[in-house]
Write a structure and sequence with these properties.
Arc Repressor Mutant, subunit A, seven-stranded mixed sheet, alpha+beta
């Protein structure tokens, strides 16, 4: 179809739905052709019940991959049509099980020829195609089970948007952004402390002039993230990763990770062999990011912050 050629992969759901509708329409006529008066949507449940012992709705739903409410609704419809019956489980009287009625068993017997003819017809179609649709469906089901389409699209969105992110060295024009971005998250979760005020009011004197560095993440040329390397004066750690903040407006675009990787590269260029940071476990996304960057928990370092309840290090 020209429409799908124009839309490309974007319309995969619509195209599959159209194909399903074509097959389902024929399926309704097929059941009438063979005198097997059931609805196409009943078939998975009907087939399971035709293969063996009575089954509980929970068992059926697991086997065919449908929800419990969906199977319950189908069973009610099939019961109304006289195809199934409900009874107490012989091994557990507390639960009910479903089985085919005598009418359902008669239809199951009729369907044996239908199974054979439909299978042969589908195989005939497959013999005329270059691609094995059945195998392709299995592959797609497996891959989507491992990672749903939504998650894959989110990942692609991040990749595209990350191309619009650049990381630059701090300059005086970014002083307000450095202060505002940090004040925003600190004030939201905690309170401003004296070391915060010193660093944010005078980043040049408190950080840069002491051998540290500040990086700024730009998204579409707007400063949306900041991170600092503060030169440490002890014999254990070279630099502290501090004052890392990303605007809530752009969270979810992977900017924190981009900024974190950039600050690691900057630390190596300054000759650092390790990094140290302080945080609070209430900041779960931040802790997750630090772990992704390679930081591991440590204990025992003196901290000037009341809010600090976790310390981490990274060996570069």
């Amino acid at each position: 179809m020209e429409f799908f050629n124009n839309t490309g992969k974007m319309a995969i759901g619509s195209r599959l739905r159209l194909l399903t509708e074509k097959i389902t329409t024929d399926a309704t006529s097929l059941y009438q052709l063979y005198g097997t008066d059931i609805q196409p949507k009943w078939f998975p449940v009907f087939y399971v019940l035709s293969q063996g012992e009575p089954q509980a709705i929970t068992t059926i739903s697991k086997e065919i991959g449908h929800s419990h409410p969906s199977v319950s609704k189908i069973v009610r419809e099939m019961s109304k049509a006289g195809l199934v019956k409900e009874m107490k489980d012989k091994t557990d009287g507390r639960r009910n099980v479903i089985s085919l009625s005598s009418k359902g068993e008669e239809i199951a017997e009729k369907m044996k020829d239908q199974y054979e003819d439909v299978t042969n017809a589908v195989e005939d179609i497959m013999s005329q195609t270059r691609n094995d649709l059945w195998q392709a469906i299995e592959e797609w089901e497996y891959l989507l089970e491992q990672k749903p389409l939504l998650r894959r699209v989110i990942e692609q969105k991040k990749i595209r948007e990350s191309k619009e992110v650049s990381v630059v060295e701090y300059s005086p024009q970014y002083k307000k952004a450095f202060k505002d971005l940090n004040e925003e998250w600190i004030s939201k979760f905690f309170k401003m402390e004296l070391p915060d005020v010193k660093a944010l009011e005078d980043p040049e004197g408190y950080i840069l002039n002491k051998g540290g560095s500040i990086l700024v993440a730009l998204y579409q040329d707007e400063p949306v993230g900041v991170c600092a390397l503060v030169k440490m004066e002890d014999e254990v750690y070279d630099y502290e990763l501090a004052k890392m903040a990303v605007s809530p407006k752009v969270q979810g675009k992977g900017i924190g990770n981009i900024l974190g990787e950039a600050i690691k590269t900057k630390a190596r260029s300054l000759g650092a062999t390790n990094l140290y940071l302080e945080s609070n476990t209430i900041l779960k996304p931040a802790i997750s990011l630090y772990e992704k960057l390679g930081f591991k928990k440590v204990v025992g370092h003196t901290t000037p912050y009341e809010r600090c309840n976790i310390q981490m290090e990274l060996i570069l």
